[in-house]
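User: Some background: our group keeps a shared notebook of sequences we're curious about, and every so often someone picks one and asks for a predicted structure to add to the entry. Today it's my turn. The entry only has the sequence so far, pasted here. Could you supply the structure so I can complete it?
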Amino acid sequence: MSEDSKPTKPTGKIEFIENHRPALPSGDYEITVTQSIVATKPPPAAPAGQDSAAGKQPTVLVHEEFVSQTRQFSVLGPRFTVEPQVIRAVFPPAGSLGEHSNVLPHISFNRSTLPWERLAIPLIPPERHALETRAENRSEMERALADTPKLKAPWLALLLFDQDELVEKQMSAENQGIAEAELTPGKVSGPKACTLHGDGDTWTLAPSAQASTPDGLLSPLFTHESGQQEGDPVAVIDVAGDLLQAILPSLEDVRLLGHVRQPTDDLGTLVGDQVATLLANRLPRAGHMSVMHLVSLEGLYEEEGQEKSDIWSLVERWRAASPTQAPAFVRLVSLQSWRFTCLAEEHSFKGLLNGLGRSPSTLRLPADKLDAARPYAEQGYVALPHEMRQGNRSVSWYRGPLAPGRVEASEGSLCARSADQLVRYNPANAMFDVSYAAAWELGRLLTLQNEKVAVSLLDWKRRRRHAQERQQAMKALEHLPIVGQPVATDLPVDVRRWFEGLALLRGVPFNYLAPSERMLPQESLRFFWIDPEWIRCLHDGAFSVGRVLPSDHERDAAHDQHALAKPHAIVTGFLLRSEVVSGWPDLQVDGYDEAVPHENYEHETLSPPSPVKASIASDRALQEAMNHGDASLLALRFGLATGSSVAVSPIVADSRWLVNVNENETLYLIAGTKDGLQLSIENKLPMLRMERLSPSVLLCLFAGDVKTVDIHQKPEALHFGLNHSGEGDSIRYSRELKSHRGGELPKCEVDIPWGQDAGSEKGSRQSEGRAGDFEASDSRQWSQQHDPEETQRLPP
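Assistant: Of course. Here's the predicted structure to add to the notebook entry:
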């Protein structure tokens, strides 16, 4: 195998599925249940030596037929609206300004059956009967009918409209705002509101039951379904018939423009979500704005052997009936729309990450223009208004849990009676520091807000107090043979999980994390250390629920506060505020405790090398055990510390395994080589939390001191793009073919024929072959080092 085609990092595989059809398409159904009871008595056995009672029939004791019952039910899938949470992602992102002129726009759904839950062309009665018949009872003809191509075509399509195809805006006649100009041939309107109109079983999006109006506006015909009401609102667009005929994909192309992909490991086990994807059939134009519409295909295609009721038959009837051959316009249901512009490469995935602001590199205010406040700004402090309990107003220092440098935890127990006890005063500048006081009060308020946890914690304290009092009373009865019950110290499960979440800042408002917007401007990346003392104050405030009497304070002070949550020696992370967070929802982030050289910032997601700790000869029994998550042989063969909690999980079966010792205390990587098995320290840090705090802000926390961060897309987050060269009419599209094992095949570039002119006779409605192979996702990596002032700094 050549070097170019050799896979760099095996990561399982991705399966592409033509479609994912539900058991029943959306619609109204009828089910009939019949029941009968038959009880028989077998014939008596023949005496010994005589013929058996052959031919005798059993005696029927009971034979009762019940009246059959028929019930109607409906499968109600989306038809005129799609819930936002069903949409996983769109590409290019809404509002993007990147260079996307060589990528087919697409939309992905969390529910993998959604594009096939309806039919673009309704089933004829024989097909519907065959589909409703049990598979084992179908005849050969019914099996063919049940596998009709209609079930393989999505009922949705993604249409792209160029800015030159949009209806122009103009001032309204009453000068009351901007309105759309009159719809003309070759144009499409913006989204508008419409209502459903019904006439028996035929429903339309236009007032007339004949699906037309005097100005030539035509609507697809819809069959009535349960739950559908006259006047239901529908979002629609009006498209000129000539434009729609040029860009609407054929029914054969529609089947190719949708698929489902699912990631699996080498054992064939599903390791991620099944995602349905629909592609557009046009490429955006460079330097132009494009508008995408997810439209319904119901009623747009011809039914074979049925009355001509598709939209194109209606268009032809309109043109034939119009003495002036007036243009026809088609009204389509628009379930989702967004727009983007193909301008510059700096707004692409790689361009946005390369352009992130990283000065300062840590989460703090810029201090270059400060004088007296410079030392405090460099430590992450912000001066905020402070209103005292007595009503006095002042300005005090505040620093959240995300510090720009490492903060050592103080020794001893913490058990404050109130937040005021944690306020610090600096006589040098006559200002208070309310950081830890704010953390304590926040912990108390968040716990009181969570009524279930607060009641559970208070009940545990009450039971613990009663147990301690009984234990004290038992000391007076030591001369009697009475055994007292031990005092339980373990927190309830829900309370323990609550404190573990607080340790990872779950539920902490964002203004406590970044008190000033200048600390995290737009398109910026900031690193930080978690302040363990801030977390201790947060925990103590949460644990103070029920702390009223001096005796309550004494009991709380005696409790081991390290038992409130699993402590981590060092927790670091970063905040990212960028269009990348909102535009690429499937971002993947890896953190490492080793820095990479400056010239290796951009790479192919290869982690820094790990030191080898031990090597053994190949052991098939050990490999099989690790493939199934059994770590018993592993600890014995590699001599891991006895008494440790060891877990193993396969990364790639028979070749790579991840070993977790004592719940993220130490991570090892076992790799199979030609000489045997090697055990090395895994320098990839455990991810403690990765969450979007807002559409454009991402928070990541790692267990350990992160020095390299790798931000990339999922391997299955493929972009359906083409390589292009040349300009204008001489532009050429091509794709390099990839090996099924990963990596591009050398010298295997194929030309992709592509019709880009939407105004041509066929335009981009039909293309030769399936245009748009897969473009590998980009990645970006940063390295950071420690300077003498204990702050994180990125190299220039």
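Suggested note for the entry: The chain has 16 helices and 42 strands. The chain has a mean pLDDT of 78.
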